[in-house]
Structure formats: structure tokens, C-alpha cells
Specification:
With 262 residues, the chain is an alpha/beta fold. The chain contains 9 helices and 10 strands.
Length: 262
């Protein structure tokens, strides 16, 4: 029979193990929202941003939304998401927004027709540049940027329609690369609402002139899958939906892509 002292020692050891496990957290079944990696979603109330927020929550991440309208964010996401209220065009607001974030998904998009102050050079370039620099200063582990197919074509029709939007998106990409923050840049084709998983993806590099579109929910799946993956770092690629394709193998999806500059 074990002595009373032995029983107390065993109990203490078991309690210590439980406390250690609880504090360690992680991404397994025992991980809690408090110990999960923190993803800051910029552009969270937009069409793509909403899909990123919902998917990241379902994958167990802690999510923070950087928004101008907190009431709108709470209407969309309730209390499952933390909020930082500010304007991405105000560089002084960015350090507080990125503080403590492990990852950033930037799904910004300008709309100067709806808001003349929301011009591409201010949002798609200026705000993205400032955000990347703030992320680097805060030691963010991974910055995932949503850009667009066609950014290397200055004569693209979207530049004529939307104030050189693709020109400024390309400059935003370059600013992210120059910032020193670990990054992945995703250039989708046309985006539409609708469910994810209706086929596969056609992934390209070099900005080929290819027409195509994809569901925002499918784009969100790529963005969230990229988070924290070493084989996704320093890579830029284009993607459209492929209705005849198969669901992606995430273990190979990024590793098959070449690194920027190679």
C-alpha cells in the first residue's frame, strides 16, 4: 500500500502535469481560444474578409478585426471576434492594431467611386505599405496579402476604369516585399459570392493573361491555409477556380510554387 506521503506526491505530480498542459496550449483538441494564434484581418467586413474571419474562427484561431465601423463588425461576427477600431489610412493607428498578432491577412480594396478619399494610391499602396511596415516592427510571423491578377499589365482595362487600381496594387505588393515582413501574396482572378469547394484551383505564376474567377470562400481557404506555413513564404501566385479540378492537397499546394526572385 502506498504511504500517505507517496499519495500526496503522486497527486501533486498529476496536478503539475495538468497545469503544464493547460498553459502550453497548441493547436490540438486541448487548445483553447486564449492560447490559439492571433490573426488580424484587415478589411474584415468586406466580402473576402468576412469569409476569412469565419473560416479562421472555425479553424480555432483567435481573430481580431481591424475595422472603421465596430457596430457593423459586431453585427457580422458577434462577440467571437476582437475588434480594433481605426482607419488603415492613418498610419498612427496601425501599431495598436498589429500589436500581439501572429498573422495578418490583408484583404483591403479601394473603392473611390463610393468614397473619393478611398483612392487606390491611398489604400492599395499607402495603407498596405504602412501596414506591412508596422507588421515588421511588431515581429508579425506572416503577412498574407490579397492582390489581383493583372497587376503587371499597365494597360489592363481595370486601370482605366478604377483609377490605375492594378498599378497601385502592384506597388503595394512591392512595398510588402521590401518591408522585410515574412509574406505570401495571392493574386486571385475575378471574385464571386457563393459556397466553397465546388471543384479545385488553377494555380499559376508570372501573371499570365488568363480569364477566370473563383468563390471568395475558396480564396479564404487558401489565405487561411497559408498562415504559418514555411513553404508559403516569399511566394506570389495567381489563382482561379477550376470546376473540373480536385480539392487541393494543402501539404503540396505551396511547396510546388517557386520562391520570388528565382
Amino acid at each position: 500500500m502506498p504511504t500517505r506521503r507517496r499519495i500526496l506526491a503522486l497527486a501533486a505530480t498529476g496536478l503539475l502535469a495538468l497545469l503544464t498542459t493547460a498553459c502550453a496550449g497548441g493547436t490540438g483538441a486541448g487548445a483553447t481560444r486564449a492560447t490559439a494564434p492571433l490573426v488580424l484581418v484587415v478589411g474584415a467586413t468586406g466580402g473576402t474578409g468576412r469569409e476569412v474571419v469565419r473560416l479562421a474562427i472555425s479553424r480555432g484561431y483567435t481573430v481580431r478585426a481591424f475595422v472603421r465601423d465596430e457596430a457593423r463588425a459586431r453585427e457580422l461576427f458577434g462577440d467571437e471576434v476582437g475588434h480594433v477600431v481605426g482607419d488603415v489610412r492613418d498610419a498612427a493607428a496601425l501599431p495598436a492594431a498589429v500589436a500581439g498578432a501572429d498573422f495578418i491577412v490583408c484583404a483591403l480594396g479601394s473603392n473611390s467611386r463610393r468614397d473619393p478619399t478611398n483612392r487606390p494610391e491611398v489604400v492599395d499602396f499607402g495603407a498596405v505599405k504602412a501596414l506591412a511596415q508596422a507588421a515588421r516592427a511588431a515581429n508579425v510571423r506572416h503577412f498574407v496579402l490579397v492582390s489581383s491578377m493583372g497587376v503587371t499589365d499597365p494597360d489592363h482595362m481595370l486601370n482605366r476604369i478604377f483609377d490605375d487600381v492594378l498599378v497601385w496594387k502592384k506597388r503595394g505588393e512591392d512595398a510588402v516585399r521590401a518591408s522585410g515582413v515574412p509574406y505570401t501574396i495571392v493574386r486571385p482572378g475575378g471574385l464571386r459570392d457563393g459556397p466553397a469547394g465546388e471543384g479545385g484551383y488553377k494555380v499559376m505564376q508570372g501573371d499570365p493573361k488568363v480569364l477566370g474567377q473563383m468563390a471568395r470562400a475558396d480564396l479564404a481557404a487558401i489565405l487561411v491555409a497559408a498562415l504559418g506555413r514555411r513553404d508559403a513564404l516569399s511566394k506570389t501566385f495567381e489563382v482561379v477556380g477550376d470546376p473540373n479540378g480536385s480539392p487541393p492537397d494543402w501539404e503540396r499546394f505551396f511547396s510546388d510554387l517557386r520562391t520570388d526572385g528565382r
